[in-house]
């Protein structure tokens, strides 16, 4: 083995200009370079991503390789990835985070009928498929559909005085539908609804979670406002369809979250378009470009545009969401990309907290 004289410090210095594309800061300063090993002309770099759902992993690998390859004597560069999700925290400093839960993501809509629960389910599973530890809380007390969509119906058990969530597709699931009579309507005022959800948050043994996805009730009334004021939220995703009436209500949802100082991760436009399975023609049944215009107008990201397909409905009805039943389909790909974009936004928020860089270097011999 030829000794090139290359040191770990030189490799670190070469990597210092390489930035996380989402956060816009040096990988070294963010503590994302966990280890550097040198064997002759071969250099191995261990990069710790801010989320396993990183949408720009390929770009980071390319930038790391290019920076190290430029050093004299380097003949080969290998890059290893791991991930550690940072806690973004809630927008209100007086709100206590849930034990063991790093990030809470509210999925909300200004009105019903836009596919909010379908989006919440597929986002949660997509994050879990990328390797994150994920929980899903069905807080839609007026129409808890998560048990059907996730294919779980039995009641959860208790352990040490805590409710143990059920597991489906690698996601921990808790729903008011597990304890309410499905044949009866819930006729409660806002404070009682909020009390029930608060109990779910405090009395459920979620364990260690990177993300807890919370499916909120539709609308922006008293119950919804009370919930978002009590739940420690790291960020919110607004679900809408392209039509003007849905977009008008989505804007109200944006305003509600801004009122309670919650970061808006972005907008997901559901039922964006329909592709005819026979002729391949594309139809914008509910209008065109509404989600993108709204996102631009209110300076929030458009996380994704989900096509309208019967397989999405079918998967939800039988308890096999589209990201599981048909992972290579256009809707599944769109859901995964939206989940990764939301996770990246949370990583940006977490990076705004001051932290000391941590670089693991072996002592030179």
TrEMBL record:
Q: Which GO terms describe its biological process?
A: iron-sulfur cluster assembly
Any idea which positions bind ATP? 110-117
SUPFAM superfamilies listed in its UniProt record: Fe-S cluster assembly (FSCA) domain-like (SSF117916), P-loop containing nucleoside triphosphate hydrolases (SSF52540)
Asked whether the UniProt record includes Metal-binding among its keywords, one would answer yes
Gene Ontology molecular function, alphabetical: 4 iron, 4 sulfur cluster binding; ATP binding; ATP hydrolysis activity; ATP-dependent FeS chaperone activity; metal ion binding
Cite the entry's keywords alphabetically: ATP-binding, Hydrolase, Iron, Iron-sulfur, Metal-binding, Nucleotide-binding
Q: Which PANTHER family match?
A: IRON-SULFUR PROTEIN NUBPL
Q: What does this protein do?
A: Binds and transfers iron-sulfur (Fe-S) clusters to target apoproteins. Can hydrolyze ATP.
Subunit structure comment from the entry: Homodimer.
In Swiss-Prot or TrEMBL terms, this protein is called: Iron-sulfur cluster carrier protein
At the highest ranks, the source species' classification is: Bacteria, Pseudomonadati, Thermomicrobiota, Thermomicrobia, Sphaerobacterales
